[in-house]
Here is the input.
Amino acid sequence: MPQGDDRDGDRGQMLLVAALGLAVAFVALALVLNAVVFTENLATRNPDAADDALAFEGAVTEGVGGLLAETNRHNDTDYATLDDALRAGVVAWDANASRLTAADGTVTAVELRAATNGTRIVQETAGAFTADDGATAWMVAGDVSGVRRFVVVADPASTSPVSVNVSDGDGDYWRVDVADDGSGDATVTVTENGSTVTIPHDDATVAVDLTEGTVNGSDAGVTFAAGVDAPFDVTVSDGDRATGRYQLFVDRELGAFATDAPTTRPAIYRATVDVTVHRSSVTYESPVALAPEDAPGNDTLTQ
Here is the structure.
């Protein structure tokens, strides 16, 4: 019997050791799982309260920036009407945003600080790129220092180009030529700093964003008015060699610059709003500059 008791004791010790081993293994597994969950929580948790403020600033840039574009399109009777419409729009946008952010315990404010007047020059329906009097070589905007959102959608009708030229009084110039490549497709040639860049593609109609440096939405690797000093003139030559549409904003009010364009409208060239975001852990204040970077309304002036 004593011998049997010893064997039973050994088995008990072995079972105890095995149980302890399993317990240690389960504890280790629990620690690993807890570490994974904890790491995932850290990865999804906002590490900096200022991130929320920056996200709200981005929403202001997009939302109020879109409001600015729509104001330029629909409230362009005169500059006073533009200013009143934008101010009223910002107040309404701020009220709606404040209600939404308050649910998260955040107090926000958006106020219009200033607006700079300019002019929108636009051809919204397709036609030849000619002046108000039908001239094929003409002044789009003379003696301006800033141009935004200069988009040209062109369907060239000749292997000889229609040209948009930016030049200053010192002989420096920057030029974009759009022509038919001989097979029915458009080709874009940009001349800047004495060098020429050709951007061919397989479309009959081409959308060139001169200020953003894109062709049909793709980066063309060019810089608007490179090597040209402000103030400068923007002109078109051989405007009857293509048909299409265009839009640009300049930093001069109507009557304060020379233009032969058929359609010019009052516009807000830029605006600044003051953004405030307050939470228990942070107060963030910053001015945000807004510009009509996107062509307004549903008519995006793209291909």
Q: What stands out?
A: The helical segments are 2-44, 50-74, 79-102. Confidence is low (pLDDT under 50) at residues 1-5, 15-47, 295-299.
